[in-house]
What we know:
This protein has 492 residues and is α/β, with parallel strands linked by helices. It has 16 helices and 20 strands. It has helices at 11-22, 60-68, 103-113, 118-138, 147-159, 166-173, 177-182, 203-211, 220-233, 276-283, 288-297, 332-341, 386-404, 409-412, 421-428, 473-491, and strands spanning 3-7, 26-31, 42-45, 48-51, 57-58, 80-82, 87-90, 96-99, 213-216, 237-240, 244-250, 253-259, 264-266, 269-272, 305-314, 323-326, 350-353, 367-376, 413-419, 460-462. Strand 12 (253-259) and strand 13 form a beta hairpin. The model has no long low-confidence stretch (mean pLDDT 95).
Amino acid sequence: MKKACVIGAGFGGLALAIRLQSSGIATTLIEARDKVGGRAYSWQREGFTFDAGPTVVTDPECLRELWKLSGHDIADDVTLMPVMPFYRLNWTDGVTFDYSNDEGSLRREIARVAPGDLAGYEEFERYAAGVWQEGYVKLGHEAFLDFSSMIKAAPAMMRYQAWRSVYSMVSHYVKDEHLRQALSFHTLLVGGNPMSTSAIYALIHKLEKDGGVWWTKGGTNKLAQGMANLFERLGGTLRVGDKVRQVHTIGDQVTEVECESGWRERFDAVASNGDLMHTYASLLGDTVRGKEMAKKLTNKSFSPSLFVVHFGLEGTWPGIPHHTILFGPRYKGLLDDIFEHGVLPRDFSIYLHHPTVTDPSMAPPGKSTFYALVPVAHMGKLPIDWAEVGPVLEQRVIREVGRRLIPDIEDRIVTRFHYAPPDFEADLGAWKGNAFSLSPILTQSAFFRGHNRDDKLKNLYLVGAGTHPGAGIPGVVGSAKATAKLMLEDLR
């Protein structure tokens, strides 16, 4: 039996390991941290469950497919709960907008906020459906290993004006600024600037409309654990709490994987779900290929980081939806500060996650779990002392949530802590603390992202946010499908 190793048990690594094991490849999945999930880690504090993220589950069918490979049902391991509305958008001028796939409700919201844009929205909807068909259905699970594959895809992408930004394309169809932001903010959830991310990412609108937005009962960490349970039930080997020290090579082949515990084993193929820079600069740092790729990656544009404040409160808030976007007073200017200038602005937009409104099990009875997320530049652009700045920014974020939604928030806090760019670097090996790998811009899409199979090490593979199609659960699960196809063809 052929043997494969997958390094990193984030969603991409888990999905790849399941596909390999389901196909009869003896697969070992190695995770450095004490439990699976990667960015979907979790903490227990004073009876509260805090998910590190991601918290938005879309395209549940791509997850169900992983169980169906072996004749199982996702419901055996995971309970998916619908979220409605998908998001409540709130601006500083008092305007609110409930975003969902309920056609009647959505049209009423548009008619209320931007009555002149209803026809334009319908045109945008058709555009998003077209780019979803071309960019996700046809190409979302394909490996772009050579430039010719990019050339073949180019005509369709050019037809949908992929060189334009999401915000630019949205603005072509609708004129109201609130609606423009409502239809373009989604790229922030995969690490992209709406002002520069390719219009291809408008497909997220169609993805959510068709598949809905979901929550995993018990937290997103339960989805990761459910995937791990399936993998082990299929006979896969899971090693947690054992960080990979080195991937050994001979010539153009990877041969062995060595962990810090001293464990070492030979494999026919190795795939990394780790950060691209960590994979090449650290795991392959002693090789010519590792040094070569690490140097190339330093010239790439990486996504921003995040500053996340987790807090548990006394009381419940049925009027605060599961997902709220609290827009700040600026949109483009704030995005420029984060993505271009690398400064820590005085104002900010907040993504507020409130899982207990959907799933009360995330907190003790009569209490609520929240997190407030603020995008910030990664440490390469924003070299500040987070040990000093972190507590100050945490307080500012808490106060803003209090000012906008929960006036007595300070009196209700039971527990709180924050997660900053240095934590992404230390816990996840994320270069400069980036949160979503390479920026999702056109010149870093498809062939221009990490290749699912390395160009020179013939049995080294990549999976996850740094590869096509990019970050987000559907993205990395799609990446796993593309990588598994290559590995199975090669191993057989």
